[in-house]
Amino acid sequence: MKVLKNILMILGVFFVVSTLIFAVQETTVEPDAQKDVVKNDVDKNVSEGYKISAIDIPEDLNFAGEIVPQEDPEIMERVDREFLVNTYWQSNALLLMKRANKYFPIIEPILAKNGIPDDFKYLAVAESGLTNVVSPAGATGFWQIMKGTGREYGLEVNDNVDERYHLEKSTEVACKYLNKWKKRYGNWTLTAAAYNAGPGAINKYLGIQKVDNYYDLLLGQETGRYVFRIMAIKEILSNPEKYGFDIQKDDMYSAVPTFKVEIDEPITSFTDFAQQYEINYKILKRHNPWLREPHLNNSSRKKYTIEIPNKGYYRESK
What are the Transglycosylase SLT domain coordinates in residue numbering (predicted)? Predict the structure, then answer.
């Protein structure tokens, strides 16, 4: 009996040792197998045409018809940077294309009516990504208009109503501002830079550095990149296939048709107001972001125009 017990013990030890040896062999082989899998995946990607390439810069690059001095290598490095950053930030570029399809038809005729080159719609893209953002300095809306500038050019800006969020009205103000500074600087490129940095800063830099154009100015990083970024965005959004984007018309965002309702009295509850038109407060705000509170004071009985979406474009509220 004792002999049998010893034999069983020896067999048990042998089994445990064998198992451990097998496990060690497994772990030493596994990394190599994983490397082979990764290598095969990489080879597959490369074989299927996946590449990250340098960008061919167009030879006739311009902003608002004003030619870029492409013979200057320092200028071309700055151009190249913006093309690379904006081409290979693919998710952002796709969002900009989708939004542009929705909002450019609103912006373009206002620019044309005011004699502003069509390229300036891309300035709005560079400023805000075509969203109603607020900068740390307080610049607001698609055109990033400061409170004082908005009021100076006739927008209503207060806690109850802020027309910097009104796309049509803010675009009109942007046009007035751009035309004013185009008269001062004589070209659209410096005008765009002044829109970003402020004319005071641009005037200061022009005086100190004794030059008369954007491309010869040494500016801070944001404004120094600004016009080049606009040009890159313009080129990529105008020719998406050229830069590797496969986006179809059905992929784009589109505007929901609306009708207008005029009011000239206080509204105590925009929730109740919205329900009269079979929509909810969220949808009302989506189409009228300039209404900043869930009510309208309007003690002066000013006339406002509110956009209401046509029926059938949103799911019914419950």
Answer: 111-210
Angstrom distances, CA of residue 263 to CA of 256, 260, 268, 306: 21, 10, 13, 8
Q: What angle do CA 127, 157, 178 make, to 5 degrees?
A: 40
CATH class of this structure's domain 62-248 = mainly alpha
Please return the burial class of 77, using the count of CB atoms within 10 Å of its CB with bins 0-12, 13-18 and 19+.
Answer: exposed
Torsion sign, CA atoms 65, 142, 260, 149: negative
Alpha carbon separation from 170 to 150, 164, 177 (Å, rounded): 8, 5, 11
Q: Give me the residues paired with residue 134 across strands.
A: 140
For the chain, which residues make up each domain, given as ranges? 62-248, 258-309
Q: Specify whether the CB–CB gap between 98 and 252 falls below 8 A.
A: yes
Give the residue among 81, 105, 94 at the shortest CA–CA distance from 221: 81
pLDDT, tens digit (0-9, with 9 covering 90-100), for 144-160: 999 999 999 999 999 99
- 263 forms beta bridges with 304
pTM of the model as a whole: 0.83
